[in-house]
Design goal:
Radius of gyration: 14 Å
Largest sheet: 5 strands, parallel
Strand content: 15-25%
Oligomer: single chain
Order of helices and strands: EHEHEHEHEH
Shape: globular
């Protein structure tokens, strides 16, 4: 886990992805864009962090080996925790394994197909938290 505590007034973004390179790239990109960022590699740890850190937004990979993105979203719903979720996946659009449309139907606020630019993530974050930065 990593957090940029330089400015506690900036939104805290929790990134959940099992790929270390993606987690690190997103953390660096988010911090460069002025956000505070925490990263973790599994859904169970994410649930603990949501409850203890109260992030403004979750950026959630759908495909993870232990606890996948749908399990995280379901657990949040069961716990009545309301936090906007931006899901991400490398699945091919229109392919039967493409879970992004299903995740939006399940309650995700936005979806990004990997790879994406940090500017796209920033725009999605601003949209789901409803403030222009």
């Amino acid at each position: 886990m990593s957090a940029n505590a330089a400015d506690n007034t900036q939104p805290l973004i929790l990134v959940i992805d099992d790929d270390e390179a993606i987690r690190d790239a997103l953390r660096i990109g988010l911090e460069s864009s002025g956000y505070r960022a925490i990263v973790t590699d599994d859904g169970a740890a994410a649930m603990r962090l949501v409850k203890s850190e109260h992030p403004a937004v979750l950026v959630l990979d759908l495909y993870m080996p232990e606890t996948d993105g749908f399990e995280v979203m379901s657990a949040l719903k069961s716990a009545a925790v309301e936090v906007p979720i931006i899901v991400m996946s490398g699945g091919v659009a229109g392919h039967p394994g493409d879970l992004l449309p299903m995740a939006l139907d399940f309650g995700a606020a936005a979806a990004l197909r990997k790879p994406f630019a940090i500017a796209d993530l920033d725009a999605a974050i601003r949209k789901v938290i409803g403030k222009a930065r």
